[in-house]
Task: inverse folding
C-alpha cells in the first residue's frame, strides 16, 4: 500500500493505475454510505469523483498532509460532500424560489473550505481534556442529557448541561485561537 502523498500525487498526475486502486479500495464504502443515506449508485459515483477532484485541486494549491489513512480521509471527504448535497437538495425542494446555479469551481472551493473547517474542528477536539472529548462526542451524537448525566455520574441534568456548555466553550476557544481560523470563516 502506498503512502498518502503517493495517492495525492497520483490524483494530480492522473495516474490511472493508482486511481483504479483507490476506486477498488474505497468506492464500495462510499457507495454503501450514499445508498444508506437516500442516494443511488450514480450519486455515489458523482460524490466519489467530486471528492477525488477536490483532493487533487487542494493538493495542487497546497501540499497538505493527511494524518489518517488515505481511505479514511477520502471517506470523510465523501461523507461531507454527500451531506452537503442532501442539504442543497433540501433547500431546492422546500424553497421553490431558491435554486442556486453555481459553477464547479465555486463548488470545489466551498467543499475544500468545509473540509479544512472539519479538520480544524477534529484537531482541536483532540486537544481538549479526555472528559470533555467524551462528553462532546456524546453530545454531538445527540445523546440525551440524562444519559450523559448517568454515564458520568453527574448529580443532575443541569450539571450535564453545564459540563457540555463548558466543554463546547473550551473547544470554541481553541478553534478561534488557531491561526487558521480567520482564513476559514469566509470563502
Result:
Amino acid at each position: 500500500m502506498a503512502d498518502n502523498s503517493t495517492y495525492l500525487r497520483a490524483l494530480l498526475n492522473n495516474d490511472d493505475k493508482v486511481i483504479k486502486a483507490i476506486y477498488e479500495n474505497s468506492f464500495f464504502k462510499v457507495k454503501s454510505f450514499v445508498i444508506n443515506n437516500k442516494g443511488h449508485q450514480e450519486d455515489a459515483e458523482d460524490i466519489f469523483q467530486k471528492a477525488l477532484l477536490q483532493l487533487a485541486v487542494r493538493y495542487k494549491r497546497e501540499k497538505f498532509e493527511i494524518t489518517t489513512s488515505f481511505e479514511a480521509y477520502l471517506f470523510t471527504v465523501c461523507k461531507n460532500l454527500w451531506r452537503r448535497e442532501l442539504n442543497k437538495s433540501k433547500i431546492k425542494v422546500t424553497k421553490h424560489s431558491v435554486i442556486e446555479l453555481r459553477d464547479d469551481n465555486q463548488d470545489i472551493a466551498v467543499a475544500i473550505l468545509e473540509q479544512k473547517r472539519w479538520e480544524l474542528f477534529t484537531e482541536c477536539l483532540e486537544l481538549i481534556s479526555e472528559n470533555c472529548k467524551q462528553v462532546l462526542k456524546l453530545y454531538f451524537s445527540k445523546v440525551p442529557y440524562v444519559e450523559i448525566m448517568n454515564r458520568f455520574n453527574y448529580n443532575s441534568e443541569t450539571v450535564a448541561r453545564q459540563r457540555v456548555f463548558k466543554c463546547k466553550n473550551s473547544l470554541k476557544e481553541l478553534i478561534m485561537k488557531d491561526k487558521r481560523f480567520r482564513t476559514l470563516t469566509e470563502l
About this structure: Residues 129-187 form one domain. Residues 91-102 have pLDDT under 50 and may be disordered. Residues 70-94 form the longest helix (25 residues).
